[in-house]
Amino acid sequence: MVNKLLRSFVFVSLLYSCAVAQDATQETYAAQLSEKSAKAHLSLLASPAFEGRGTGQEGGKKAANYIAEQFQSYGLEAPVAGSYFQPLQLVRSSYQVHRFFIGEKSFQNGKDFFIQGDNTNAIFTSSDILFVGYGIQAPKHNDLEGIDITNKIVLVINEGEPLDANGHSIITGSKKMSDWSTSRFKRIQELVKRNPKMILATNATAPEMIARFGNRPNAGRFMLEKGNTEPEQKQTVPVVTITEDVANEILSRKKTSIAEQKVKNSSFRIPIAIDIEMGVTKESFNDPNVLGFLEGTDKKDEIVVISGHYDHDGILPDGTIFPGADDNGSGTVGVLELARVFSQAKKDGKGPRRSILFIGFAAEEKGLLGSQFYSENPIFPLKQTVTCLNMDMIGRIDDKHLNGNHDYLHVIGSDKLSTELYEINKKANSLYTKMELDYMYDNPKDPMRIYYRSDQYNFAKHNIPVTFYFSGLHPHYHTPDDTVDKIDFPMMVKREKLVFHVAWEIANRDKRLAVDSHKE
Question: Fewest CB within 10 angstroms: 225, 255, 270, 394, which?
C-alpha cells in the first residue's frame, strides 16, 4: 500500500512538473507552424519565376517584394521610415567584354575565350598581331630575339616547348622539359615584363577551361560602397585565353596553323584588324534588407532579431538557375512563418514583452553584406538588441546524418557569448522538439568555420549573443539541384518550432540575456 501511494505521488509529481514546465500558450502557436504553409512559400520562392533570387537581379527584387508583402499581410510595422526596405549601398566590380572583333568576325566571351585581367575598361585596336611562337626567352631558344612587343597585341602558344628530332627539349637537351613548360605562369609573366598591349594565349586545354569557367569569372564581385565608385585606374596587361580554333583563324592569314608552328618555331607579324573593348566596370545596386517589426509591451525597447538571408546565386547568362530551396529559401520561409505566428499571438492578446525584428537579409552569398550593412546602419540601436536567431539552411538532411538519425539540428554559437542562450536552446528542445542537437560546428578548430559564414556573425562581432540554426551541407549545396522536391518538410517545420520556442522565451523572460561567455 505504501509503495502504491509512493508510486502515485511520484507519478502525479511528474505530471505536475511537466504541466508547469510546458507552456500551453507556446504550444498553441507553435502548432500553427505547418508543413502546408511552409511548402506553399518555398515552392514559390524557389520556383523558376524567382530565378534563384540573385543579388542585383530581377529574381532578388521579386523575393524582397514578396517578403515585404507577407510582412504587411501579418500586420508587422514597416520600421525603416515607413518602409519595409533598408536598401544596401552595393557596388559590383566586374570584368565586361563589350565587343571583341578579330578581323571581320566577332568572338564571344565564355565560348571562344576567357579573360584574366583587372584593367580599367579600355578600347584595344591594332592593324596586326605579333605571333611569338612559344614565347620562350632562353639562351638556347628565344622566340622574341630582335622583336619589340611593347604596346603590341601578341599571340603565343601557351604550352610545351620546341623539341628536336629525338623528342628532346632544345632547351634542356633531354627528355626532361624546362621550367618554361613545367611552370604554369612563367612564359606569360616574362611576356608581361615586356609591356605588350594584350596577350592572346592558346593551348589544347582552352575549350575545357572555357567550359569549366564559362561566364562566371565575369559575374563580378559585390561589396558595400565606401564612397567613391569610380574604378581605380589600372593598365595591367589583359591575358585572353583563346581556343586553338580561334588561333588558327588568325594564323590562316599567313597560311599556317598552331600544329604547324609547334614544329616550325617561328615568329612573325600577322596583318589583321583588332577592335576590342573590355575591362573592369563598376555598377551600383541597392538590393534591400527586408524588415518587419512587432512591437513588444513592457520591454519593447529591447529587440529580438529573427533572421535569414533570402538571396542565392541567381541565374547565369546561359539561363541556368540556382533555385536555392534549402539555401536559403528554407530559412527565409522560417522567418516568414515565425513572423506570422508571433503576429497572430499579438492579435490574440499574447504578444511578446520584448519587440521582435524579423529580417530577410540581402547579399549574404556575396560576403554577409546585408547583415554587415545592418550592423553598421542599425534601425534599432545594437545596444538594445538582445539576440540574433539566424536560420540558414534548415530544410535538408546532411551527409553526416543521412544514414543515421534524421531528427537533428546543428545549433551553432549559442554558448559563444551567453551561457543562458545555450541553456535556453537546450531546454526548449528538451521540452518541445526533442531533437538531437549537434554542436560539432562549435569546435573552434572546425575547418569549415561555419560559425563565421552566416549573418548572425555580424551581430556576434558587436557582442550580441547569437544562434545559427543549420541542417548541414549536402551534395546539392550551391548547385542547380537544390530544389524543393528534396526538402524534408516535417523536419524543416520541427526546426522552425525550436527557433519559435527559443524566441518566445527570450522575448518574454524577466531578465535580458546575460553576456557572460567569450568563447572562440
Answer: 255
CA distance 131 to 143: 9
In whole angstroms, give the CA distance from residue 323 to residue 320. Answer: 10
All three cell numbers of 152:
603590341
DSSP secondary structure letter of residue 513: P
Vertex 235: Cα angle to 234 and 241 (nearest 5): 110
Partners of 30 in beta bridges: none
354: β partners: 299
Task: Say which residue the cell 573552434 belongs to.
Answer: 444
Q: 226, exposed or middle or buried, with CB in 10 Å at 0-12, 13-18, 19+?
A: exposed
In terms of DSSP H, where are the helices of 56-119?
A: 58-74
For 355: left if phi > 0, alpha if psi spans -120 to 50, otherwise beta; the answer is: beta
DSSP secondary-structure letter at 430? I
Q: Which residues contact 496 (CB under 8 A, 6 or more apart)?
A: 33, 38, 334, 337, 338, 391, 394
- Residue whose C-alpha is closest to residue 293's, from 513, 71, 508, 465: 71
CB 197 within 8 A of CB 237: yes
Identify whether the C-beta of residue 152 lies closer than 8 Å to the C-beta of residue 176: no
**Beta carbons within 10 angstroms of residue 306's beta carbon:** 25
C-alpha cell at 193: 615584363
- How do the pLDDT tens digits run along the chain, 520 residues long? 434 434 444 444 444 344 447 899 999 999 999 999 999 999 999 999 999 999 999 999 999 999 999 999 999 999 999 999 999 999 999 889 999 999 999 999 989 999 988 899 999 999 999 999 999 999 999 999 999 999 999 999 999 999 999 999 999 999 999 999 999 899 999 999 999 999 999 999 999 988 877 555 566 899 999 865 454 555 689 999 999 999 999 999 999 999 999 998 899 999 999 999 999 999 999 999 999 999 999 999 999 999 999 999 999 988 999 999 999 999 999 999 999 999 999 999 999 999 999 999 999 999 999 999 999 999 999 999 999 999 999 999 999 999 999 999 999 999 999 999 999 999 999 999 999 999 999 999 999 999 999 999 999 999 999 999 999 999 999 999 999 999 999 999 999 999 999 999 999 999 999 999 999 8
Phi–psi pair at 156, nearest 5 degrees? -135, 145
pTM for the structure as a whole: 0.83
Cis peptide before 328 (omega within 30 of 0): yes
**How many Å apart are CA 96 and CA 123, to the nearest integer?**
12
- What is residue 249's three-state secondary structure? helix
Does residue 228 have a cis bond before it (omega within 30 degrees)? no
> CA-CA distance, 328 to 170, in Å (whole number)?
56
